[in-house]
Amino acid sequence: SDIDNLRILDYLNEFFAFIFDKMSEQQSSQGGIPGNATELPQSTEFLVGKLLSQRKFFTNKTSVVERLDSSSISSSSTVFLSHCEDIAYIVDSACTKIMIEECKNLSLTANDKIITSTIEIWKSQNVTLKHKLKKKLNTQVQTVQVDQCQNVNLQYEDPRNFHSVVWTNSDQVCLKVLENGEEKHVLSTGDSFEQPTTTEESVVQDTPSDKDPTKLNPYQYIVRLIDDKLVTEMLIRAEKGFPTTQREWDEWKVKNNITS
Predict the structure, then answer these.
(1) In the chain, is it the N or the C terminus that has fewer CB atoms within a 10 Å radius of its CB?
(2) CA 169 to chain CA mean position, Å
(3) pLDDT tens digit string along 239-249?
(4) Using CB atoms within 10 A of its CB, is residue 71 exposed (0-12), middle (13-18) or buried (19+)?
(5) Beta pairing class for 221-226 and 229-237
(6) What's the predicted TM-score (pTM) here?
(7) Which CATH number fits domain 54-197+214-255: 3.30.470.20, 2.160.20.70, 3.40.190.10, 3.20.20.140?
């Protein structure tokens, strides 16, 4: 899917960022003069190993409550929760990103900063992002990506902590945004509900009754606060594959006097 492709690009970006940082460190140590390239680690395996060492994997755990703090993760860590079931994770230390893969009945409490402000969830069931006994996020998570999931529950305690939810091939995504402790915005979306289509003739969206459960829907949807309402829109690919919505693309063309 497009999200899988974006995830691969994300890994590559981390890889090249790591190499750039190493080169910058070497230049700084030599007064800004580029050092001999042979002085850099020459083994691709070494570089990949260093990159992966920044990923903290928590896999195949069940029926526990686990706290992740500065003793187990660092601010440069990408927290990777995989194949866990009936489990609650409480993240009490800053990290770079949180990724959840093939988990069931998982709850996540985020109590410290997520540097990229991003959580990715895919191929999982019954996932709740919450704070203590209240199902809400206690830190800024501007973007949550949900791919091939069933029953994902998200609740933000402050509209300022929310920017968007991007989902595809997910049965039910429930979103609540609170303000001053009260529910301000509530939306249930997902493949169980009829979704908006673009105005492009080339795009045909099946209704829920027409869906083939063995066939993945190639389209992604984005939920944002627009005019003080939670709105679901289909993502399209504009020029050079840039992700946007038909509404925003039409507005951009009008603003730039483009008629085609």
Answers:
(1) C
(2) 15
(3) 777 889 999 98
(4) exposed
(5) antiparallel
(6) 0.72
(7) 2.160.20.70
